[in-house]
Amino acid sequence: MARIGRLSPLSAEVDVPFTAAFRQALQELGWADGRSFTLVSRFAEGRAERLPQLAASLVQDGVDVILAGSNPGALAAKNATKTVPIVMVTTGDPIGGRIVSSLAHPGGNVTGLTALGGALSAKRLEALKDALPGIQRVAVLANPTAPYTGPFLDEREAVARDLGLKLQVHEARSPRDLEAAFAAMARERAEAVMVLTDVMFITERRAIVDLGTRHRLPGVYFDRQFVDAGGLMFYGASLVHMYRRAAVYVDRILKGARPADLPIEQPTIFELVVNLRAARSLGLKLPPAFLARADALIE
Fold first, then answer.
1. Which of 101, 104, 66 minimizes the C-alpha distance to 83?
2. Is residue 154 within 8 Å of 167, Cβ to Cβ?
3. What is the CATH number of domain 2-116+238-268?
4. Structural Rg of the chain based on CA atoms
5. What is the DSSP letter of 168?
6. CA-to-CA distance for 209 and 220, rounded, in angstroms?
7. For residue 118, what pLDDT is reported?
8. Where exactly does CATH 3.40.50.2300 map onto the chain?
9. Which residue has the higher pLDDT, 119 or 242?
10. Which residues share a beta bridge with 274?
C-alpha cells in the first residue's frame, strides 16, 4: 500500500475540499483508498511555524510521497528530506521562494503545480475595478511575513498606476491585528479591500469578511472560501482543480517517475465567483457586463 503524506498549512476543516478532490482524482486513476493507498495527514491549523515539525514527522513515518500545500509547506518538506518525492500545490513563486530553480526542469525531489499568485493579485484588482468602476482608494490587507506579500508590494506602484488606483497597505501579522487594520482602512476612507494570499488569512476568513461588512468595504479575495463565507468576490486559479492535477503527479511518481523530470505545471482554469447576496447587503449594483463574465454567482 502506498503511503501518501498530506502536509497542509490549513486546518482539517478548511482543507476538506482540496483533499477530497485529490482523493477522488487518485481513485479515478485506479488507486483504491484504503487498499492500494492511504493518506497520512498533518495539519498546521494556520500556523506556518508548525510546518517544519509536521514535515519531519511525515518523513519519520516513512511516507512514499508528500503532497504539500503552499510555499511554506513545500519548503518545509524540502528541508525535511532530499529523497522523498514532494508534489506541491501553491499560489506562490517556487523559484523566488527557493523551492526549485526552474519550472521546466525543477531538479531535486520537488515538482507539482503553482499559480504564481503575485500576477494574480494584479488581476484581482482589475476585476475589482471592473465591478466598481468609480473606486479610487483600495486597501490591501497584507501579512508582511508571508512569502506572497513581497512580490506584489514590489510591483504595487506600477499596478496602481495602470488601473488608476491608490493602494493603501495595511499589515496584519496575527489575528489580533485584524481589527486595527480594518479600523485604519475606514479612517483612510478606503472604498474596497483586497486581501493578499496568506495561510493565516484563510483560517481567519470569517472574521475578515465580517470586518469588511461592518466597515462597508467590498472585498476581493484569493480563495473562494472567503466568498462562501459572505465575501463579495474571488478571482484566481481553481485550487480544487489543481489538487486534482496533483493526483496525476502522485500517480506518475508512485509508478516510478522522478520528480526532477516532471515540469511544474501552471493552471489553465481560473474562476470569477461573485456573491450577489453580499453585493446587496453592501448596496452595490454591479455592472451587467461584469456579472456576465462570472463563472459562478452565489445567490
1. 66
2. no
3. 3.40.50.2300
4. 19
5. E
6. 10
7. 64
8. 2-116+238-268, 117-236+271-298
9. 242
10. 233, 297
How far are the Cα atoms of 18, 44, 45, 77, 146 from residue 13, in angstroms, in the given order? 10, 12, 9, 22, 22
Q: Give the start-end residues of each E strand in the chain.
A: 2-8, 37-43, 65-69, 86-90, 110-114, 137-142, 166-171, 192-195, 219-221, 233-237, 270-275, 296-298
CB 230 within 8 A of CB 197: no
| Amino acid type, 262 | L
| HSE-CB of 133 using CA atoms within 13 angstroms | 6
- Burial label, 152 (beta-carbon count in 10 A; 0-12, 13-18, 19+): buried
What does the buried/exposed string (b/e) look like for 163-179 if buried means 16 or more CB atoms within 10 Å of the residue's CB? bebebbebebeeeeebe
Residue 192 CA from chain centroid, whole number: 20
Residue 119 has pLDDT above 80, yes or no: no
- Condensed to tens digits (0 to 9), the pLDDT of residues 26-74 reads 999 999 999 999 999 999 998 889 999 999 999 999 999 999 999 999 9
C-alpha cell at 213: 461588512
- Contact between 185 and 131 under an 8 Å Cβ cutoff? The reply is no
For the question of whether the overall pTM of this predicted structure is more than 0.90, the answer is: no
| Spatial distance between the Cα atoms of 82 and 129, rounded to a whole number of angstroms | 45
User: What are the cell numbers at 252?
Assistant: 506518475
- 216 has a pLDDT exceeding 90: yes
**DSSP secondary structure of 55-123:** HHHHHHTT-SEEEEESHHHHHHHHHH-SSS-EEEEESS-TTTTTS-S-SS---TTEEEEE--HHHHHHH
Topology (CATH level 3) of domain 117-236+271-298: Rossmann fold (3.40.50)
Q: What is the largest CA-CA distance in the chain?
A: 58
